[in-house]
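Fill-in record for ABC transporter permease.
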Amino acid sequence: MNKRFRFNGKYVSYDDAIFNLFNYTFMILLCVVMLYPFLNTIAISLNDANDSIKGGITLLPRKFTWYNYEHVLSEASLLYSFMISVLRTLIGTFTSVLCTAMVAYTISRQEFVLRKFVTIAFVLTMYFSGGLIPSYLLIRDLNMIGTFWVYIIPGVIGVFNLIVIRSFIEGISESLFESARIDGAGDFTTFFKIVLPLSLPVLATVSLFVAVYQWNSWFDVFLYNSSKPTLSTLQYELMKILQNSNASISSQTAAGAFAASGSGATSTVTPTSIRATMTIIASVPIILVYPFLQKYFVKGLTLGGVKG
């Protein structure tokens, strides 16, 4: 007979207690393993750059300083590029999710005779592409170089997201669509009043994917808008700061760096400290947004069910 004991007002068996102890211990260790790289990055970003070269930084900075953040945030163009990144993320995410959902709804309908052909055409683009040079020539011929829309239009349809949303829509009960057609609803009415409300979990997930991509993207800025400072994004500006830091450090001698460290002056940055600081600055907006979307990830997959 399994013995039981009273704990916190409830009777718990010894087997359950041992299992819970093992389970909680394992999950705590897993959380520590997952959080350690991020906490270590925070510690490096708050530590004196010359001291960080010695290594040994774990969860707490050894020589606390705000200089790394002051150095990065002192760039005059950083605030404006931050606003461009926010604008790009908001417009790009909304446009991409809406257009991708509309295409996904279209190819999920059995009455659409070209659904298989269109699906295959989209999927092929995941495996084959024209390459960097043809893509650049296409963007140039579309007169999008040097414009804000080069951030939005090329990525308006994401094939992977298209497949995810289409699979979700196909799980919605067909009875809802039949009822809508009987009531005289057209495709747009059905899409906006039935499909979108029922697809909030998958749309929230896809929105997070797209938003992270838009927020972290900098290579398209380098390719198409590097000569347009007014269209520069936060990630591109941070990348330039890191390059300047690399160039500055390479021009210094090791003796000079350690001399600055020994004098107690915190006036030097290193690529490692700049990289850690940039990682924290770029991650904060996504971390702030994620909790509001997390609840949609665990929504039931039977939202399309119809009560009998």
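KEY FINDING: DSSP finds 14 helices and two strands in the chain.
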